[in-house]
Amino acid sequence: MSSNAEDNKDKDVDMTAEECAEFSDTLKSLETTMKLHMTSLSAKRGLAPLDGGGPGVGGLTAPVPPPRSLSRLRRDGSKVNGILMPTRKDKVTIYVRIMFLKVGEIDTLRDKFSADAFVQSKWREPAMDGKLRMQNEDINWEIYWNPKLSIDNVFGDPKETVWYSVSFDGTGQATVCEKRRINGTFLEFMELNQFPFDSQDLTVTLTTDRDESEIEFVEDPKEKCSMNVQSFVDEQEWKLHKYIHTWTKTREEAFRNNQARHPAFSAACKASRRPQFFIWNILVVMFLICSLSFATFSVQYNLPQNRLQLTFILLLTTVSFKFVVNQSLPMIAYLTYLDKYILGSMAILATICVWHAFIPFVNSTIIKCQPDRVALADNIAFGILATIYVAFHLGLLCAIACLAKEHSIYNNVDATVEHGRGNFGFEDDYEENGNIPETFHDKLDVKAIRKQNASEQTTNQQTVMSAWQ
After folding, report:
1. Which helix (H) or strand (E) segment is 462 a member of?
2. Is 0.70 surpassed by the pTM of this model?
3. Which of 356, 335, 333, 332 is nearest to 344 (CA)?
């Protein structure tokens, strides 16, 4: 055993002076290379040099815990990369602009619509004040405060791109701008009470994971929400208006233990359905069928079987039309205008059937052997039913006229997104049902607005495309 140890010792020291010097130079070169490599890592990955008494060797570096969030650093007054972060305890105001670049198909059966939207959010960033030489591509955005924004009513897996930029005013104050372009499907609760003369709000909602005590949403006063009507896909079925209605609200997440309230900002454009298809293919046909039911009174009252046969054929035809209408509507728990019209027509047909079944009883029992009185009673029933039928259609025409007047207001406004609300006060008087008050109708210079909106729309498209590039 001892002899083997001596042999190993002799082998260990069996080196010439030149070989020892060469080995020493190699070790020093390796040490220098490791120092340079660890120094570069410290700048890229947040590594810090160790003190002499630490576990490191010489000038080597070791990993440190990941930095705390910026909000925590601001409260503690800590440093990030040697820079003291200022405290920020006040509520941050986010200036939002939502632009509808393209609106696709509106699916009333599934309560959703497709769109391509551009969302711009701006907020002040005191930590960047005075750093005028900062380039957007060189900024590490993870170490700065972020509002944690997201689209609330998006459905499925949308195509979303987010990028950031910073701008400075004349005094060197920094403003961070978050821009996102999202193309996907958005959920929207469709209100179909007035179908097929209805109007729908197409909404895009921006929300945040932060509490309402930290963030406040405000529409950007310099860049208002807007939309591009020219690229509307479903133009054959819908009329897209340019008026944009914005509002703020709060939401709660039920899956979290703390009942935090998160602010949200919504922008909605208005789309009115073109009812011509339903008018010519359902309403007019139903009107003709129900009108033909009065022709059954031309058959002698003493032939009730012929009257009933004709009336039942017309009644079954209306039932088939009812099934056709149901294929165009979701399973809703209320009646639309079209449902009310079809059911009203069926009720009139059913009443005529009941009278035709009752007239033989009148002839044989009540007014027996008096044909003149039976014919008079039949004529009186015809007059009463015809009066009810005419009054029913007059009421329908009045309702349609009121809805057409509402739509004409939107057509006259037609793109008052950026200046109409500020000049005419639409925002304060916007009614709960989504209608612009009629009092503002006469105040609008429609031709001037359309010329102004045409030039502004071109400018907005060029701005968005340049930002996207």
Report:
1. helix 446-468
2. no
3. 335
